[in-house]
Amino acid sequence: MSKDIILKAENISKQYRLGQVGTGTLTHDLNRWWHQIRGKENPYLKIGDVNDRSTKATSDYVWALRDINFEVERGEVIGIIGKNGAGKSTLLKILSKVTAPTTGNIKFKGRVASLLEVGTGFNGEMTGRENIFLNGAILGMTKKEIASKLDEIIDFSGCDRYIDTPVKRYSSGMTVRLAFAVAAFLDPEILIIDEVLAVGDAEFQKKAIGKMQDISKQGGRTVLFVSHNMTAVRQLCTKGILLENGNIKMHSDMQSVLDEYTKSSKKQSEFKYLIKEDKTLISKIAIKNQFNYLTNVFQYNDEIIIEIDVIVNNPKVSLSIFIKDNDFNLIFIDEYPVNESGKFKIIIPTGFLLKSTYYADVHLYRPNINFFDSKKDEVTFIIENYPDKFSMYDNVNCGIINSPLVWSKIG
Amino acid sequence: MIHNEHTNTTWLFEITPKNKFFTLNLKEVWQYRDLLMLFVKRDVVTVYKQTVLGPLWYLIQPLFTSITFTIIFNNLAGIDTGTVPPFLFNLAGITVWNYFTACLTGTSNTFGANAGIFGKVYFPRLIVPISIVISNLIKFGIQFLIFIAFYIFYYLKGVNVGLNGSVVFFPFLIVLMGVLGLGLGMFISSLVTKYRDFSNLIGFGVQLLMYLSAVMYPMALIKEKLPDYGWLVQYNPLAYVIETTRYMLLNVGHISIWGLGYTFLVTVIVFFVGVLIFNKTEKSFIDTV
What we know:
A: 6-stranded mixed β-sheet; B: 13 helices
């Protein structure tokens, strides 16, 4: 069976200028124009840094996206994830025609509608009903289409009572509900959604996710979805794209992409998890140094402090920590009995572990019976240097455990 | 990359780094015609929400400007308007001039004022300046009513206010004025996205331009009194529109076929250059605005 490709992106790149637009703009424009009329390539396209926000720029131009290629099949729900500044929003802006790519092209086989931050295009002076028409038209619907769905839209938004009140009197939650309701009844083949679920209460988020699932399943519609909400992404998406510094790092099924993403977010030193008060689970893990400072980079003479918050609703639970090396080989384990919810602190004393990267897995279980919760391969920390007694060897591998051997001259 | 060209040949549309050299994209604008009408409605309706006088505000501005002009230019400076009452003379000029400036200043801020919504969602950007020109046409219609009211008032008073037969072409004149304002506004709105200097220019530039557009004096007067600077007005296409307006509505001044032809030519050129630059800008202005 041949694949039904509905969207195809070829070599999309997007270049931005750093700093202020102003000084030097005119000279660059003139230079660009001078190259153009002589039939030469834009001189500023050859330069530009990889988009890594944390490093210092060496050029005035930066590539927010670089050579992005992907295809989307009809009916796929694709989650686009990545760290802040990875290029997610830029990609969606290009796909929704808000801004043009610097190079490359995208081909579509269906109508596209985008829902990027709801509520834009709402006019505060106009009533909810008037705004449904206005917003619907902005999103590409005709008046007739909107009128035929008006009742459903009002019903879904749950703003029936306020529908003839100016939108400026609405709470922010109500505005979002109304805006999402309009978009949810759009009829495009491809729907692009950016972070809409960040607002609204839990009940509405659930409703919105459910509606989006309906849209993609029943209508066979294609959805591209950008979010930091990993739960929503996991629930909704069949496939995922992981962006990193403007490149596609991975394009695969959602679960593998999520795994890769968690792996790549190594610098994190605090991990918070979903809390359910009636379960037994790990709710938070934090790594600190002896100054109570969140970090996961240590010197050999730092204490490594791991704090774990647990919620316990079962008897005879043990909390354990598994320390593994960079290749996931287990170095040691330790455990501690936990009889009630609370915060637990583990100190790895100074000078015990040597220079390497480590993984700290945390498990919550009833020994030999069952596991309640496990956090594997997520929490990492790095020790950067060796103790003084090995410093003369200039970073030759000296192992990872400071040996407790006792030496003496006996003859 | 391997392309399966033969399996995927029927693409609906394509996004590319640049627009074609000249595209009006009227087909797309037509698809979004409901949005166009809703924008017009929004522009007209929201202006007088939460005001007591409502649409009366549209009338107050030209009325008071005309009164001021009559006092300053006619009573004080003594500009002669012939058989036509100076107030009516000024009101005719101001009403048409207002339409032009409203189109120009409104469209010249297209990208700036709509950056928020343009940055979030795509629709043909041309919709916005077109909607501004149409909603201003409605405002012009309301303002024109007050001109008609005063016209009848003077007529009933027995003042000799003539109507020229060429008045049937008046709508074309208004369209010409609107298109000129639209073209110039699109041109400037595109430049403003990169060089803010132009938004400063437009503020006082429009005011200065009014003095060169024969709004408060007959065109013949400037040739007579300031022969050295007369060419400034003579090469201003707007002056011909204003002069012709008064010729059609009040039967004063001259109609110059050469002048109108010149105005038409300038309008066409300005409009096409405006669309050209607007198209080039709309693709990625959001990065520089």
